[in-house]
Fold:
Amino acid sequence: MTNVTKVAGVTAETVETDAGTARVTWHRARKARLVLAVGHGAGGGIEARDLEALAEVLPAHGVTVARVEQPWRVAGKKLAPAPKTLDIGWRGIWPALAKSGLPVVAGGRSAGARVACRTATELGAHAVLALSFPLHPPGKPEKSRAEELLGAGVPTLVVQGGNDPFGKPEEFPRGVYDLVEVPYGDHGFAVPKRAEISQDEAVAVITDAVVEWTGSLG
Structure:
């Protein structure tokens, strides 16, 4: 069951899943060739700077962006549930993402990127966009989550901050995926004021990379 509302050209749709009520905020391209679905992390929502920037930029390039809020976030809870529950919520949202018949790129930031990687093959995702993939907990490189990333099974782009405590670009293992570094960026792609690039330039690195990558997908 879904419920749809429209505000200033942006469509919000609630979707019932086995993990609770989720919400999809649509930013539609006029002549869409792909849908990019992006989930949020465990510590924030779809207002993250990278997700907002993609929603603003991608539709002009033929990519409809769907910002996905997991049920726990819609319910107003402050702590994300276990990965298994996040996967259940994502699976429940997928039919709404795929209903247009267009190829769907599964994506997300941090925990949302992990969900996209874990479920990509099962759900038939066209590709995976992993923003700030949490390769390991801060200070614990031995607890690697590389297996999730390497197991995505579809074309994958990782966009990673150069100073991300959850895994710097040079820590990532070799594999069949593309990786773009956001210089000086932390886990939220924030850059310090002393950095050689501005915050707007850092965000542009993200959007430019995703525009180019999605344009290359067959």
